Amino acid sequence: MEKVVHFTVNGERKVLALKPNVTLQSALRNYLGLTGTKKGCELGVCGACTVIMDGVPINSCQVLAADADGADILTIEGLAEGEGLHPLQEAFVRAYLHLRDLRDFAKDYEELCVICEEILDAYTPEEHYDAVALRDAVIKLKELLGI
């Protein structure tokens, strides 16, 4: 049986009919198309799914959408001011571009290439990412580069 859930997301009123086991993360990504809220560890540890609910940062993978009924929710997409990006959004773009550049840099270095591929496989903005694999791959890369 579905439950009708009302909340405000990034300043816009939303009404969804959802099954009781749907997480806020799933509602944002799959029902509202707000893919900036990432699917990470699904344990509430990595922070990839963090949103602001009623002024408090929460792990949206740990909150049922039904429990957010009546809440005011701010996602990464809602941070933009006009046409420009919010500094936090800019930081995410820079981090992604840096990882992409590492992949290009590593093409000439087989050993580094494997590590960069691990990093990029662990972190794909459009999909699920594995926080532990990302951390381990970055540590390996830093060790190899002497950083």
Give a topology summary:
Elements: E1 3-9, E2 12-18, H1 24-31, E3 50-53, E4 56-59, E5 72-74, H2 87-106, H3 110-122, H4 131-145
Parallel strand pairs: 1-5
Antiparallel strand pairs: 1-2, 3-4, 3-5
Helix pairs in contact: 2-3, 3-4
Give an overview of the whole structure:
- The protein is 38% helix and 17% strand.
- The protein is of the alpha+beta class and 147 residues long.
- It folds into two domains: 77 residues, Beta-grasp domain (Ubiquitin-like (UB roll)); 59 residues, no CATH class.
- α2 packs antiparallel against α3.
- The longest helix is centred in the middle third of the chain and has 20 residues.
So what's the overall shape? globular
- How widely separated are the two ends? 54 Å
Strand residue percentage: 15-25%
Largest pleated sheet: 5 strands, mixed
CATH architecture of the largest domain: Roll
Number of E strands = 5
Specify the helix fraction band. 25-40%
Low-confidence stretches: 109-113
Side-by-side strand order of the widest sheet: 2-1-5-3-4
Q: What's the CATH topology name of the largest domain?
A: Ubiquitin-like (UB roll)
What is the level 1 CATH name of the largest domain? Alpha Beta
For the record, the count of structural domains works out to: 2
Q: What is the CATH H-level superfamily of the largest domain?
A: Beta-grasp domain
Kindly name the structural category.
alpha+beta
